Automatic annotation (TrEMBL):
The keyword Transmembrane helix applies. This is Capsular polysaccharide biosynthesis protein. It comes from the Bacteria. Residues 201-221 are annotated as: Disordered. It comes from Actinomyces ruminicola.
Length: 221
């Protein structure tokens, strides 16, 4: 190890308290932010997509076709302007708020749609989730596939929108961890900057003395 590398490591070790202080402050800030933030409730619902047969029954015999062609479309359209506008009209909640609240997913190789909605109250979260499922049901009924005599699609409830009994967030541990990571990153950047400035000053050496020496008094003859 060269002398320069040893000096850098030694300099960083001396600045470790500064880095640690930033980390601790970041954790504290994250926990305080989570504490001051209002509670968040999450309501979930799930429904099954199936094909309607010609005799009025329901079938999942075309599961592969639905999974490959329809499910991605449903997930994509679930947060479209038309669906969100319908949910906003049903619930009386602003469309932009509905967009932030709703998440729709579908597991790989599955006919099940999962809807989750977050809000500052359990009742509001449940209302949004219910309205989203209803809007999806209407949208799915307008889709179709054409294997054999199966055409129309339907959405059947599996689990109705739940009424959350406790907040799902914000998580103090998660926000504290994020704050710690951000604080540690800032502390490390500041430490490197200070170390670089200090080493740059050392490389230049002491400033030359430019003061004019005092004049020597003349010796009388």
């Amino acid at each position: 190890m060269s002398q320069d590398e040893a000096d850098r490591i030694g300099g960083l070790l001396k600045l470790a308290p500064l880095w640690l202080a930033h980390l601790v402050l970041g954790v504290i800030f994250g926990v305080v932010f989570a504490t001051l933030s209002g509670p968040v409730y999450t309501s979930t619902a799930s429904a099954l997509v199936a094909a309607d047969t010609s005799d009025g029954g329901r079938s999942v015999s075309s599961a592969t076709n639905i999974i490959n062609t329809v499910m991605p479309t449903i997930v994509q359209l679930s947060t479209s302007d038309s669906v969100l506008a319908e949910v906003a009209q049903t619930t009386g909640i602003d469309q932009s708020e509905v967009k932030r609240a709703v998440t729709v997913t579908s597991s790989t190789n599955s006919l099940i749609i999962t809807v989750s909605a977050t809000a500052s109250s359990a009742e509001t979260a449940q209302v949004i989730a219910e309205a989203e499922v209803a809007a999806l049901r209407r949208m799915v009924s307008e889709l179709s596939i054409t294997p054999q005599d199966e055409t129309g699609l339907s959405l059947t409830d599996i689990d109705a929108a739940s009424l959350p009994s406790a907040p799902s967030g914000p998580s103090k541990a998660r926000y504290g961890a994020f704050g710690g990571i951000i604080g540690a990153t800032i502390g490390l950047a500041v430490s490197f900057l200070l170390l670089r400035t200090r080493m740059s000053s050392d490389d230049k050496g002491p400033a030359p003395n430019t003061a004019t020496p005092p004049a020597t008094p003349a010796t009388p003859e």
